[in-house]
């Protein structure tokens, strides 16, 4: 049994979904592990991870639209406002999605479905430098 | 250390929670792994996974009721509408729940709590053939 | 490759976020595993797990405020009401957050970001005795 761990930086350009499927696939391929489990983990609380459709970009537009309506800026009862109007909504959006996602490996590849992509979901308005950690175990 | 991986098909009958706890338990038992980690993964973006109460079926009714109200069909700002009025709401419901769930194994069994069941949460109106992948590692 | 599993009890004092970061760190340190994966799992369906900011307590206040508004008590269409007005909202809040979180281990420590803490998120009004399971694999 083997394992490997690697850090990746994603430079986000404000709110949006940034696909990291290729980064994940390259990492898995580099380890030559045939069967196992890969875990993607994001070291932040105002961005998150999401597996979503990567075929039609409209899905990403609507995903942003929904989360922006569900957790709008300007909710007047918020008390954590010192880091800007988009900060607490960003923490809430992160809580509603994922910080960590585990994906089985079979035949040397993550078993993502045909239309599944792995995304870093940036919830802050300004660009951020985000740290992603990949861990793999298997053989 | 050993590992195993298996695919399971769940034939859904439209929106609802389809319990796969027995499938998970059978898979774990078949591997004879006593201590480890089992990961359930669904290869789709319009259904998801959920651990929820399996004692009172009313919990499932209300879960459906809540998600149907939180993410209704007919939100007039949606742009991804070509696959039907239930498609984009399905992607959003999947984003709000899980694509992957890891459960520790102890004494040869997944450590699900007394009332916990593992469900495939179908978000589309029509029946679908859904692929679930289970991975286990341990000894 | 080694693994370990441990159970921890968290005595909650009603709705709120109960930090278990130190418990997680102690468990990881006790195993002397340098590189690996730790999984936190909660054996209940009316509380959940969350990774969130542990710097400003206001974030926790607002997190509670948001979930309380998104899933209020007294939704008149609920059918599962026999366990009290806070029970079904608790199940829904658990569905919207996590039952299981996997965190890579590097250099003998969980790779939590600077501001990340691991919390048990209690959704019931009364104090509860909650069971948390930690599993670690690595070497």
Automatic annotation (TrEMBL), chains A, B, C:
Instruction: Specify the protein name.
Output: YjbQ family protein
What InterPro entries does UniProt report for this protein, alphabetically? UPF0047_YjbQ-like, YjbQ-like_sf
* Family affiliation: Belongs to the UPF0047 family.
